[in-house]
Amino acid sequence: MARSKQQIIECILNLLLELETESDAPDTVSKPLEMLTIKECSEVVPGVSQHTIRKLVAQGHVQHIRTGEGKRGKILICKSSLLEYLSGHPVRTLP
Question: Which of 34, 40, 55, 68 could disulfide-link to 73, CB 3.0 to 4.6 Å?
Answer without folding.
Answer: 68
